[in-house]
């Protein structure tokens, strides 16, 4: 009899615990933001999209989209100049095209490089953070450089300076940019491969264009300016907290998409 009573009490206690747990609400995943750039077949940026125009998936599972809205066209930009292989006249014309293509409320500051290029990028990040810029952007005009070995036998003769890719902790720079919500774009006139610059830009949702000559410089910088004025912010509910970038599909033909997580800091 005592044993049966004990079992009954245990069962009642277990049912009570299960009932209490059932009443505890499960914490939902907080919405996460994506910064999205959509470019059509003519190279024009689009930011007039709705829920019906796109699908987000994580490993094949469709995600709930909370909101789709145009990002503010107002940007604060630090343009870094380093060893861009153009004349001063070409550079002035390209900068003019770039500024004209931006929203009139945007601000552009110029920064030269004195020393290591990676350090210059960190300086630009700190500068934008100190301004409390809500839409901070870094635009690299040029690339790193190095002294090529001299073909002459004398150790006193230095080689010529040549274009080079970004060196150092590129992953660390990417994390720093992401942590401050900064877009990174760039353009260089060189035939030297620049995969680190391109990887850095892609990690933020931006792009780094490598041009064989200066004839497309104006057009390229103008297209970057238009992109910055026509981007989207998407809020969605993730399946978990892994931070995986979802697959984004646009239900329209011939569209180029670039997306990256965005965590505003101001």
Describe the 3D structure.
By secondary structure, this protein is an alpha/beta fold. The protein has two domains: 29-69 and 232-261, no CATH class; 73-147 and 160-228, von Willebrand factor, type A domain (Rossmann fold, 3-Layer(aba) Sandwich). Helix content is 31%, strand content 30%. It contains six helices and 15 strands. The protein has helices at residues 2-23, 88-101, 117-130, 170-179, 195-204, 217-228; strands spanning 32-39, 45-46, 54-58, 61-62, 64-70, 76-82, 107-112, 136-142, 144-147, 161-164, 183-189, 208-211, 232-237, 247-250, 256-261. The strands form four sheets. Strands 1, 2, 5, 13 and 15 form a five-stranded antiparallel β-sheet that branches. A five-stranded parallel β-sheet has the order 7-6-8-11-12, sandwiched between helices. The chain is globular, with a radius of gyration of 25 Å. It starts with a helix and ends in a 5-residue tail after the last strand. 28% of the residues are buried.
How many helices? 6
Strand content: 25-35%
Please identify, by name, the CATH architecture of the largest domain: 3-Layer(aba) Sandwich
At the fourth level of CATH, the homologous superfamily of the largest domain is von Willebrand factor, type A domain
| Rg, Cα atoms, Å | 25 Å
Structural class: alpha/beta
**Biggest beta-sheet profile:** 5 strands, antiparallel
The CATH C-level name of the largest domain is Alpha Beta
SSE string, helix = H, strand = E?
Answer: HEEEEEEHEHEEEHEHEHEEE
Approximate shape: globular
Count the domains: 2
What is the helix fraction of residues, given as a range? 25-40%
Low-confidence stretches: 7-12, 20-26
Mean pLDDT: 86
What is the fold-level CATH name, i.e. the topology of the largest domain? Rossmann fold
Intertermini distance: 68 Å
Counting DSSP E segments of at least 2 residues, the number of strands comes to 15
């Amino acid at each position: 009899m005592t044993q049966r009573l004990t079992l009954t009490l245990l069962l009642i206690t277990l049912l009570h615990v299960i009932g209490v747990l059932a009443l505890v609400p499960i914490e939902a995943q907080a919405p996460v933001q994506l910064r999205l750039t959509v470019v059509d077949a003519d190279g024009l940026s689009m930011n007039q999209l709705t829920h019906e125009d796109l699908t987000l998936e994580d490993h094949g599972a469709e995600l709930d989209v909370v909101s789709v809205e145009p990002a503010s066209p107002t940007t604060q930009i630090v343009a870094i100049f380093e060893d861009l292989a153009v004349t001063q006249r070409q550079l002035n014309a390209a900068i003019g095209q770039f500024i004209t293509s931006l929203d009139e409320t945007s601000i552009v500051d110029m920064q030269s490089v004195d020393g290591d290029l990676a350090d210059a990028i960190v300086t630009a990040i700190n500068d934008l953070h100190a301004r409390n810029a809500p839409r901070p952007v870094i635009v690299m005009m040029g690339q790193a450089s190095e002294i090529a070995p001299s073909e002459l036998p004398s150790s006193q003769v230095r080689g010529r300076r040549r274009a080079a890719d970004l060196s150092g902790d590129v992953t660390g720079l990417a994390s720093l940019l992401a942590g401050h919500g900064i877009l990174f774009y760039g353009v260089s006139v060189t035939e030297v491969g620049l995969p680190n610059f391109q990887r850095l830009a892609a990690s933020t949702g931006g792009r780094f264009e490598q041009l064989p000559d200066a004839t497309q410089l104006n057009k390229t910088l103008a297209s970057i300016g238009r992109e910055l004025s026509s981007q989207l912010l998407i809020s969605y509910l993730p399946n978990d907290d892994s931070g995986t970038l979802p697959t984004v599909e646009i239900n329209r033909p011939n569209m180029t998409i670039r997306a990256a997580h965005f965590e505003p800091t101001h």
